[in-house]
Amino acid sequence: MNKAYARLNHQLSVEELFWQQKSGIKWLVEGERNTKFFHMLVKKKRIKSHIFKIQNPDGSWIEEPDAVKSSAMEFVSSLMKKETCDMSRFDTSLIPAIIYENDNLSLCAVPSMEELKEAVFNIDKDSVAGPDGFTSYFYQQSNHLAKVLPSMITDNQSGFVGGRLISDNILIAQELIGKIDRKSRGGNVALKLDMMKAYDQLEWDFLFRMLQQFGFNSQWIGIVRRCIANCWFSLLINGGTVGFFKSERGLRQGDSISPLLFILAAEYLSRGLNALFATYPSLHYLFDCSMPVSHLAFADDIIIFTNGAKSSLQKILLFLQEYEVISGQRINHSKNCFITHRNMANSRTQIISQVTGFIHKCLSITYLGVPLYKGPKKVLKPPICVIERIDRLFNNFLWGGSAGTRKIHWASWHKITLPSNEGGLDIRGLGDVLKAFSMKLWWRNDAKHRDLGMYPNRVVWRAVPHLPKIFSWHKPSAGEFKLNVDGSSKHNRQSAVGGGHLRDHTGTMIFGFSENFGPCDSLQEELMALHRGLLLCIKHNVSRLWIEMDAKVVVHMINKGHQGSSRTRYLLTSIGRSLSSFSFRISHIHREGNQVAEHLANQGHKHRILQVFSQAEG
């Protein structure tokens, strides 16, 4: 009986793995033998990929199964047939020789045993291996071509190049679209290009010419030629294979080296556009930047930023036609579009449409899956209410709540999103994730461009001299005490007050005081506050004293020994006698640094007699 159970479990495991691989599901845990679920997914995939009918270019439909297969076979085989490309029009000045001998030696080197071992041990156990038994991880590690791409590909291209992200293009495109309404002759225009079957129609002669021009040696070009020029295809249509034919052009999508070869070939377009814009500066898109951008590219997804004048557009279209003749690429004019701001005159948009043959679109548009539009920058940040609503959905899901029922939430969402070492569940809140992604972009940009001689903080330092100065209170030296005093008055000098505090070298307050002096002028209230503070210092047996006050006139009178007018002479004389009891110095401090004394002085309005208190009493 036990042997029978063991054999049954083994057969169930085999069946589970078979249907799991057939359905392409990897997120189920081991032991979930839901064969009905797998069967349903496989059936759904088959129905989705089934071709029931094909429409001919003349609009008629083909529905007979054999005719559908024949039509598909004819279309794909014609797509793979070589076309004549005029390599005599290849501009060699656009492509410099960048690859050196060391690079060629590295490219032609055989993958090491360490790379092979690492690739084998990283193969997904649930994946169906290809004919050679290696996953894409092997190609990523052993493909040395990717290492030399950053030095060869211009900054306009961000696809499949190490150190570059798709977000770079999105952010730059958003900045440029934000300036699309800048006034200029012809106006700002963005041309969004759509390449027809970009990978399938790339001519091999053009690709090999590009590799040769970049400086790749004949050995490595020969390796590439043998890889891509010996491809045979059969079509899998409605569960059966059709045909067996050899391709004469194009690159295989899904092959890890194909995207790299494609962007090497497309570099002719990028460098050609940059050279064209450098020759004719009037082509440039007008916006506030010292580094003009002619175009952005992510593999075959291209957007050109240019001037909308007729002559500018004609120059760009002429170069695009040259590129089509040389490379075999075809621009789909029925799907291409141009973008202008909404206030551009209809006559101007009609001229652009007639010259280019493109469709006119207004903002917003989608670029690399992200909408681009002109508007306040704050619209790029999701509203807090939206983030909170999504977090609320997460919270309800966690506690098992639904629209009809509400379960008890035993902890707040804030506590749940704390790290586990702080009592949380390590669940990240959506707001924190958005902040992290934003800071990631900022950090990467700062780290990458920090050494380019651009100092964004210089604007801050230019503004610093014009900003209000920040003043702070400083401690006295060891063995010295510091007395800060201030006088104040309200209600047209009908009630003058004063106050201050004494602190030691650690900043500890020895005493503070406030007193109401009655009616007097501003100079008298400052002198009376100083006199009261000195008398209290004598009472506390202070010997070394540093006096600070924001009345610069009083500081000057004490330092110069002035006797003052008849109204202040008696106060200055009393202050002089008190100062003889100390080894003192007196200095001026700005009002911002004397706010404690000012606050104590204002307390004098609440009482009529002297109030003295220590820190402990306060």
UniProtKB/TrEMBL annotation:
Pfam families: RVT_1, RVT_3
Domain of life: Eukaryota
Domain Reverse transcriptase span(s) in chain numbering: 1-372
Example of a GO MF term: nucleic acid binding
CDD domains given in the database record: RNase_H_like (cd06222), RT_nLTR_like (cd01650)
Family annotation (InterPro entries): DNA/RNA_pol_sf (IPR043502), Retrotransposon-Effector_Assoc (IPR052343), RNase_H-like_dom_plant (IPR044730), RNaseH-like_sf (IPR012337), RNaseH_domain (IPR002156), RNaseH_sf (IPR036397), RT_dom (IPR000477)
Name of the protein described by the UniProt record: Uncharacterized protein LOC108663047
Source species: Theobroma cacao
Gene: LOC108663047
